[in-house]
Amino acid sequence: MTRQRALIYEIVKSSAGHLTAEEIFAAAHGMMPSMVRATVYNNLNALTEQGLIRRVRAAGEPDRYDRNLAEHDHLICERCGAISDITIGDLKQELSDRAGIEITGYELNLHYICPACRKKGR
């Protein structure tokens, strides 16, 4: 693993949240000023393909990167965009039964208004 990839991987692994590529770039560039955006994006793609990190996609939002590789789903706040992990359980068999085809995997994003945004909205 290159020094750049190792640094990007460490940034994602040490984060408590779900960082965007731009947030990862800012952190990496601060530690390694020669780092460029293309290097970050290329390495995030490689780390995702290698199964070392997970990409979280949400419509209308930038991709986020997750260190948690365990089976889980995501709660996404419709107001602030915050992403949280939630474990619902494996739905593959139920989805396969309903669809009438074998489902090999899925990504479930549940949209809601987080407690902080609900409190602000009152």
Structure description:
- The protein has 122 residues and is of the alpha+beta class.
- The protein has 2 domains: 3-66, Winged helix-like DNA-binding domain superfamily/Winged helix DNA-binding domain (Arc Repressor Mutant, subunit A), CATH 1.10.10.10; 73-121, Dna Ligase, domain 1 (2-Layer Sandwich).
- It has 5 helices and 6 strands.
- It has helices at residues 3-14, 21-31, 37-49, 92-99, 115-121, and strands at residues 19-20, 54-56, 64-66, 73-77, 83-86, 109-112.
- A 3-stranded antiparallel beta sheet has the order 1-3-2.
- A hairpin with a 7-residue loop joins strand 2 (54-56) and strand 3.
- Helix 1 packs across helix 3 (37-49) and helix 2 (21-31) crosses helix 3 (37-49).
- The longest helix is centred in the middle third of the chain and has 13 residues, at 37-49.
- The mean pLDDT is 92.
The arrangement of helices and strands along the chain is HEHHEEEEHEH
Total beta strands: 6
Report the major sheet: 3 strands, antiparallel
Tally of helical runs: 5
> What structural category do the secondary elements indicate?
alpha+beta
Radius of gyration (CA) equals 17 Å
**Average pLDDT, to the nearest integer?**
92
Report the β-strand fraction as a percent range. 15-25%
- Text of the CATH class of the largest domain: Mainly Alpha
What is the terminal separation in angstroms?
Answer: 49 Å
Tell me the domain tally: 2
Proper CATH architecture of the largest domain: Orthogonal Bundle
Here the CATH topology of the largest domain equals Arc Repressor Mutant, subunit A
